[in-house]
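User: Sequence in, structure out. Go.
Assistant: Echoing your sequence, followed by the structure tokens.
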Amino acid sequence: MSNTKMTLAQRVQLETLWFLCRGFARLPRWFRYYVFGSVVYVTLCYLLRYRRKVVWENLCRSFPAKHPGELRRIRRRFYHTLADIFVDTVSLAGVDCIERARRMIRYPDAAGQSAATSGHDWIAMMAHFGCWEFGSFWGLWDPTQAVVAVYHPLRNVVMEELYHRLRNHAHTRTVAMHECLRFYLRHRNEGIDGRNMVIGLIADQNPPRRPDSHWFRFLNQDTLFFDGGERLAIKCGLPVYFARMDRVRRGFYEMTFELIYDGQEPVEENEITERYVRRLEAMIEARPELWMWSHRRWKHKREPQQPSEPAGESVTL
């Protein structure tokens, strides 16, 4: 729980929402996903038409070679994913045992990953792909490591506190994005309760544009990415893994990790982020319906570079 001060009315709202989430999470799985989830899908896709224009524009620009019929199928499947993510997230309120969490997400190479990262901290670069919230369960598979889930704080105080309750458990600590570096430097010697840290970064968000921003070619468009993971890795010598997510069926996922930086290799500026971008792009192309197409991902546009004027011949008068 964060230390945000709340009014009595806000506290009542929070406790009411938490009570509803806890009750919902205890309903049978078939009802949550196949009844309630279907209602959410119809509501988002056909009644509210939630960001349909944004979704369609993103798909068309990302996959110009695909037929409109195929893009419409991807769009429908995306709205099914969006409805499932809502159910997945609320269902976190009912994760009160390790066995249940381990059923929701599996790590096929958990033993190998634990052996490779034993005794030191590392960075997991993730994305808004499938239910990314389940990635925080890694600490339940390897209790010697604690997941530091870096997130962007919400403006609504009640929802901010609700997400703290949903995300925080014995093996996870949520840290605001702007506090990430300071938090790590403050705890890297002793860890969290004596455990090594896994810094979980959702790296596909749309960052503020800076004069020195680096543009990546991603899904057929010039795109900005947060470079905080790369800067933290180089500054502190941390290995970086790409977290590859896949949905096995509704409410059940698998995650594997691929090393993209060992913490010591000399790299060019933006090289680590470039490696992440390429793997993310391939993952999206393989399962496009699992990515968050409703985000206004390409709000920033790259200004066309002005061609330099050719040097003219000097004229002596």
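User: And one key feature?
Assistant: Residues 8-290 form one domain.
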